[in-house]
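Request:
Um, any thoughts?
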Amino acid sequence: MAELEKLNMYINGEWVEPASGEYFETFNPFTGQPWALVARGGKEDADLAVEAAKAALESPEWAGLNATQRGHLLRRLGDLATKNAERLGALEVKDNGKLIAEMGLQCQYLAQWYHYFGGLADKIEGAVLPIDKPNTFTYTCQEPLGVCAMITPWNSPLLLLAWKLAPAVAAGNTVVVKPSEFTSASTLEFANLVEEAGFPKGVFNVVTGFGKEAGEPLVVHPDVAKVAFTGGALSGTHVYQQAAAGLKKVSLELGGKSPNIVFDDCNMENAVKGAISGIFAATGQTCIAGSRLLVQESIHDEFVDKLVKFAKTAKMGDPMQVDTQVGPVTTMPQYEKILSYMEVAREDGAECLMGGGKAKRPECGDGWFVEPTVFVGVNNNMRIAQEEVFGPVLSVIPFKDDDEAIAIANDVIYGLASGVWTGDIRRAIEIPKRIKSGTVWVNTYRAVSFVAPFGGYKQSGLGRESGQQAIQEYLQTKTVWISTATETPNPFVLS
């Protein structure tokens, strides 16, 4: 077996070996085999990266740039992302097993975040206040928070990094990224593009390793002003608690148990495709997965029959093949988790109509594949309907009318996304008002854009990514008072 390539950390514009000297394997989910060694960073490495980011924040090379100049750098980075999209996409597939058909498009599209926030950088304005005090000129300005720590997930590493990095840098912050230990390679490769774009040393740093060893030191570091995290609810809660001790700003994009609601007046063919997109695309490994399919009773059996027939045509296999539709699960722990939830569903009384276990098709080889799975006879009290599986496992739940659909949809701790399928304009307008989630798609599903804010209600998170609102997550407001009075008033009285 050939010696595995070692992937080092990127700190202060240099490729740095871990202080521990230790590395860990990263695996190709399609083959189940390791393909590279990733630096196992720890507190010493995290401290070094924060130190570099703090120094860059105050350096003339970065602090001396105006907003327009920062925008130029971001747009240049976006151009480089587009130029290298094919290579970045292939690298992500190798590391996380998602389809090249999707990851290739993602890596092309992520450039738009850098272009958008590059253009927005010099559009952030303060205000002159019509103050009620005589002989006083008062204004506000927006300033960067400082060093921002970003902890990103394994399912869409570069796209979800762009959601954080672009607004943070546009606002003038510096960054330390801790990518998932399962998918570090593409973020490290992206560091080369940041350097090529001309960003000063220390503005962008990457520390690789495990959450407890490399992520936690970033979250609790006194010189980190903001933590942006995407991942599971339990990990996100832990990050929130740790960051609270330092009164850090936090944004959290966490889990979901999204309802995809199908009314009997829908275009059934489109709704079937929407249901499949919601749960089987990306092998269900997405926080916005429409894992609860709510179908009106009058069309329940017909709809499920059409859905199962369509889903059974899905082609599984090598994610690097453009015609593959369902790829492997990204990590072994997640693979085992998905299989365990299938057993939980059966124990709770759900009926499995298709799938329900490991994929043993020849085209799946030795990879971590599970069959696309549909459970019926599910009620919303079952664990399979309440807990995030993060895999291609669909729970079908019947409902009678609008009120029951809304009651079921909102009866979870999450509120990230939802779908509504209807031909009734009244429902298209009124139902989204009643759903408690940060995104509601009507007659579509799984659509995102750099101009549209994204984030959750309830335990699906805090803050918003994308859109103009996102840059405010990385800014703080300063108020400046200038007295033009010729004489200072009574110093013992609040003026």
